[in-house]
Design a protein that fits this description.
about 100 residues; mainly beta
């Protein structure tokens, strides 16, 4: 079991600015092949989003929702398949900040 902390960023799609919804993804994988390490979701403990640690609270509303998806990815350079898990959450821009009457 591992706890991971970090500063993450996502490139934003600005097609619907300032009324936009953004999907935030974090994908974790191992350096070892999936025959040695298989990443699985901990189903005993529920996933959650810590709303208090979100940096851009003035501009964005972070949803208290976390979706997970496990899978495998082929590494073209090392010619191995790795186990991975992807976490997805969503934010919506507080458009009142940008729209004037």
């Amino acid at each position: 079991i591992r706890k991971i902390r970090g500063l993450f960023y996502e490139r934003l799609e600005l097609n619907n600015f300032p009324i936009d919804l953004q999907e935030l993804n974090i994908t974790l994988s191992s350096n070892r092949p999936n025959c040695q390490v298989i990443i699985v979701e901990n189903r005993i403990k529920e996933n959650y989003v810590n709303l208090n640690r979100f940096y851009d609270q003035q501009q964005w509303k972070l949803f208290d929702f976390c979706q997970t998806k496990t899978g495998e990815k082929f590494d073209e350079f090392k010619k191995i398949t790795r186990s991975e898990i992807k976490f997805t959450s969503f934010v919506i821009r507080k458009h009142q900040f940008f729209i004037y009457k």
